[in-house]
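Researcher: I'd like a candidate sequence for this fold, 205 residues long. If you have to choose between options at a position, lean toward the conservative one.
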């Protein structure tokens, strides 16, 4: 859409730490787009490949890559939505569950980030956090490319039957559904936390 993604650096290449005011300005105004406001066109195949390449540039203790992607788009996304729609009426709040499915059906592309736990020395909690970082990285990269993005987990992220339909395996969890597309309305600023109220500085007792 806008801008281009530089090629990946070579292994061992020096990556200088330097001030980038444009990134700070971008982060200061970051805002998710409404999933209901996302429509076609979504990222092209090449753009999506670039977004996923950027998404995996996150902290990953042990270099385990404890995550994977499932892409939902086109007729396949429609078929997936149809299958899990049959499960909505069995949720605790069927009306709310059915309404939540509109967030899945409207955007043209959905990237499901699957968190994997790889047994070994790296604590599971750290691996799960790395998957969340992938979601956030994708949430940042897509708008920088000119697309709206929304990170959602809803009942179909947890229902065992929906997970089976998606192909989630033992030891895996859905870290998020990342919805991507062209936004039909510009997001507005919302209330933000009082950072001073939730920040303390440790001192020796």
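Model: Candidate sequence:
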């Amino acid at each position: 859409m806008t801008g281009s993604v530089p090629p990946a650096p070579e292994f061992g290449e020096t990556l200088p730490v330097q001030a980038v005011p444009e990134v700070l300005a971008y982060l200061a105004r970051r805002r998710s787009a409404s999933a209901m406001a996302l429509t076609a066109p979504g990222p092209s195949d090449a753009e999506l490949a670039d977004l996923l390449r950027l998404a995996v540039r996150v902290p990953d203790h042990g270099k385990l890559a404890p995550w994977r992607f499932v892409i939902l788009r086109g007729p396949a996304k429609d078929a997936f939505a149809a299958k899990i729609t049959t499960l909505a009426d069995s949720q605790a709040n069927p009306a709310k569950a059915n309404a939540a499915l509109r967030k899945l059906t409207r955007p043209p592309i959905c990237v499901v980030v699957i968190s994997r736990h790889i047994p070994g020395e790296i604590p599971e909690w750290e691996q799960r956090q790395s998957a969340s970082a992938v979601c956030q990285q994708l949430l940042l990269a897509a708008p920088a490319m000119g697309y709206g993005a929304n990170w959602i987990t809803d009942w179909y992220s947890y229902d065992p039957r929906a997970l089976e339909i998606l192909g989630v395996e033992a030891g895996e969890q859905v870290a998020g559904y990342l919805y991507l597309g062209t936004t039909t309305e510009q997001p507005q600023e919302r209330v933000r936390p009082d950072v001073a109220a939730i920040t303390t500085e440790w001192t020796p007792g």
